[in-house]
Amino acid sequence: MAINEQTRAELRELISRYPEPRSALLPMLHLVQSVDGYITQAGIDACAAEVGLTTAEVSAVASFYTMFKRYPVGKHHVGVCVNSMCAMKGGDAIWKRISTDLGVGHDETTTDGQITLERIECQAACTHAPVMTVNWEFMDDMDEQSATKLISDLKSGADVKSTRGPRVRTFKEVSRSIAGFDDGLVDEPATDAAMLAGLNAAKKAGN
Ligand code: FES
Q1: How many angstroms is it from 111 CA to the middle of ligand 1?
Q2: CA of 120 to the centre of ligand 1 (A)
Q3: Picking from 64-68, 111-115, 187-191, which range would have the lowest pLDDT averaged per residue?
Q4: What is the pLDDT, as a whole number, of residue 189?
Q5: Is the peptide bond before 21 cis (omega within 30 degrees of 0)?
Q6: Which tens digit of pLDDT belongs to each residue from 167-181?
Q7: Which InterPro entries does the entry mention (predicted)?
Q8: Ligand 1 atom nearest 128 alpha carbon
Q9: I need a labelling partner for 113 at 20 to 30 A (CA). Which of 59, 134, 193, 198 fits?
Q10: How many Å lie between the centroid of ligand 1 and the Cα of residue 160?
Q11: How high is the pLDDT of residue 13?
Q12: In this structure, are residues 99 and 148 in contact, taking their beta carbons and an 8 Å threshold?
């Protein structure tokens, strides 16, 4: 599938949600990423034309945010957090194991197109370090064994769920959700007691 008239209509729908057209640019880029699997030149051209910016301006935005990929991404984008907390609690070991098993390094995709691997920075989920992400869904409290099983399940096409509940979908599908189109998963759980401990303590203290 490539950018077509339906995509352009959806780009215009996103623009209609904001007072200023250019405010819609980030969701628009997620939308074109959901179509092509990454930010193609055709996607940049479509965004620029619909929002009234130059292609250079759109490219500047697309190349600034790491969630926008300028290279083809596999069916699944797998992140391993290697920032301080996760690294110390096993993230470095997980990275080494998975990278070795898959035969790919940072920002590289397996030859079967199944998995793009990325070393990611802190995901603000240190409560559950070390964490991984699959298409930005969290995998909490991982270790080498659970990480290896996760990769095996993804490659075999087995049903995979985030440790927080939501089922894992493809990189393209999640990109469309991030763009702001309903995926029907709004009521799936995404937090647990450990993550809400600070909030609950503040409430208890009357803050
Ligand atoms: S260091 Fe990994 S989530 Fe914060």
Answers
A1: 29
A2: 9
A3: 187-191
A4: 67
A5: no
A6: 899 999 999 999 999
A7: NuoE-like (IPR002023), NuoE_dom (IPR042128), NuoE_N (IPR041921), Thioredoxin-like_sf (IPR036249)
A8: 3
A9: 59
A10: 22
A11: 97
A12: no
Mean pLDDT of the chain: 94
Distance CA 85, CA 96 (A): 16
Ligand 1 center to 28 CA (angstroms) = 28
Amino acid at 152: S
Q: Is 122 in the pocket of ligand 1 (CB under 6 A)?
A: yes
Closest CA to 32 of 43, 42, 22: 43
Write down the pTM of the prediction.
0.90
Asked if residue 115 has its Cβ within 6 Å of ligand 1, the reply is no
d(CA 145, CA 44): 40
Domain 76-171 grouped into CATH 3.40.30.10: yes
Confidence grade of residue 64 (pLDDT, cut at 50, 70, 90): very high
Residue 186: partners with Cβ closer than 8 Å, 6 or more residues away: none
